[in-house]
Amino acid sequence: MNEADRITRAHLHRDPRLNDLERLRVSSPMYDAVVEEINGRRIRIGRHWLTDFASCNYLGFDLDPEIIASVHEPVRRWGTHPSWSRFLASPRAYLQIEEELTDLLGAPDTLALPTITLIHMSVIPILAGQGAVFVDARAHKSIYDACTYARGLGATLHRFRADDPCHLQELLRATPPRTSRLVCLDGLNSMTGNLPDLTTFARVCRENDALLYIDDAHGFGILGERHPGETSPYGATGNSIVRYTNLTYDNLILVAGFSKAYSSMLAFLTAPSWLKDHLKVTAPPYAYSGPVPTASLATALAGLDVNRRRGDQVRADLHRKTNHVIQHLHTLGVNTSNTSGTPILQLPLADRHQLGHVGQLLFDHGIYVTLAAYPGVPRDQVGLRIQITAANTDAEIDLLNQTLTTLADRNLLRTTD
Questions:
Q1: d(CA 372, CA 359)
Q2: Which strand (E) or helix (H) includes residue 133?
Q3: Which uninterrupted H or E stretch holds 201?
Q4: How confident is the model over 247-304, as pLDDT tens digits?
Q5: Of 122, 130, 259, 314, which sits most exposed with the smallest number of CB within 10 A?
Q6: CB 96 within 8 A of CB 301
Q7: Which conformational region is residue 378 in: left (phi greater than 0), alpha (psi within -120 to 50 degrees), or beta?
Q8: What DSSP string describes 253-312?
Q9: Which pTM value belongs to this model?
Q10: Which run of H or of E encompasses 57?
Q11: 219-229 burial string, b = 16+ CB within 10 Å, else e?
């Protein structure tokens, strides 16, 4: 190590909670991997081919030939990246996406920005102001980081117990009168695959004059409005947890994006038009950041079109494949926190110290998943996160189930006993 590196390392803050993660990054082939090529949901790492169950491309739009073909003409017309900030100018596609999203979501208006993290970091401090912000204890780290930033700008920060509306109500009622209140939580949870009791949270927020801010990054495109003709328990049209729970956008901000189910780089929030116009002036990503690439705008538009025409069919297939894995886990007596039937399955290990060993076994069996290590999850939830996509074949689902049987037979997965 040279002198410059020594000085730099000496100034780094070393968080001891990251020690396990750092060891896994160095030792496990399931971390920090370089994918050399793909073939459907098969990926090659070095000379090793694996079936990918770590992808967030839930609807398989990343591999859809129609969506892939949509890129060529817009790139020829607009170039690869019209690099104005949105405050200066926006390609027409932005406005078309916002109009189509507003109609799909049944929202008052929408504003498209590059990523959900940028939205959190810029919009949460604006909405919190000098008031009080309340964040779910298991909310995504990007939400918590944005709430911490808001605290640095003058807001007070409170954490309420995960999925506990009663605790939130206690904290809201203890807030001084005439204090603005912002409540932040996840929609479909990215680790457990479960949904909050959004109806109750929304009622608590209304009764206590609080604005509810929901990050539904993993639910948008999967969950949607319920009606008798729906093709699966996910509902219809994939228009988010808000419509899935039959709520309105009164006193509610929905944040979601295209980077999961729609396989495109773009994010958005719902807002009344007056707030949208205010954010155009106050939110740094609108005023100062470059826009998303042309190809992402094109695939977002194409994805919205495909969703209109055959999205419910894709979601029905996704539910069928997911349910096949869930039922197999039940047969094995394996513990999974997922009670919603969504395609995110968290499997805690019987012994969290075996995470590296389990990762190697999965790799050797040709299965690629997310290894959920502390502090990304609580110590008692260290294990696997499996994500099913519509692009996974039935044969790949069968291979996953066979591999899970092997892990269960070796007593590596926590059981329901």
A1: 10
A2: strand 132-136
A3: helix 198-207
A4: 999 999 999 999 999 999 999 999 999 999 999 999 999 999 888 999 999 999 999 9
A5: 130
A6: yes
A7: beta
A8: EEEEESSSTT-SS-EEEE--HHHHHHHHHH-HHHHTS----HHHHHHHHHHHHHHHHHHH
A9: 0.94
A10: none
A11: bbbbbbbeeee
Angle at 108 between CA 106 and CA 114, to 5 degrees: 90
Tally of CB atoms within 10 A around 155: 23
**CA-CA distances (angstroms) from residue 365 to 327, 345, 348, 370, 393?**
21, 19, 19, 15, 17
For the residues of 165-198, what is the DSSP string, one character each? HHHHHHHHHTSPTT--EEEEEESS-TTT-----H
192, 376 Cβ separation under 8 angstroms: no
Cβ proximity of 138 and 380 under 8 Å? no
3-state class (DSSP) for residue 371: strand
Residues in CB range of 160: below 8 A, 6 or more apart: 134, 135, 136, 137, 167, 168, 171
Options 1.20.1250.20, 3.20.20.70, 3.40.640.10, 1.10.1660.10; CATH for 65-307 is 3.40.640.10
- What does the pLDDT look like over 108-127, one tens digit per residue? 999 999 999 999 999 999 99
Provide the token pair at 48: 């090793």
Which conformational region is residue 102 in: left (phi greater than 0), alpha (psi within -120 to 50 degrees), or beta? alpha
Domain ranges of the chain: 3-63+312-409, 65-307
- The closest alpha carbon to 196, from 410, 339, 5, belongs to 339
Structure tokens at 309: 């025409």
Architecture of domain 3-63+312-409: Alpha-Beta Complex (3.90)
Q: pLDDT tens-digit profile of 331-372? A: 999 999 899 999 999 999 999 999 999 999 999 999 999 999
Confidence of residue 35 (pLDDT cuts 50, 70, 90): very high
State how far the Cα of 348 lies from the Cα of 76, in Å rounded to an integer: 48
Q: Is 208 exposed, middle or buried (0-12, 13-18, 19+ CB in 10 A)?
A: middle
CA distances from 212 to 62, 96, 101, 272 (A): 32, 27, 20, 14
Query: What is the CB neighbour count within 10 angstroms for residue 185?
Result: 25
| Nearest C-alpha neighbor of 55 from the set 235, 260, 246 | 260
The residue whose two tokens read 């969950």 is 223
d(CA 190, CA 416): 22
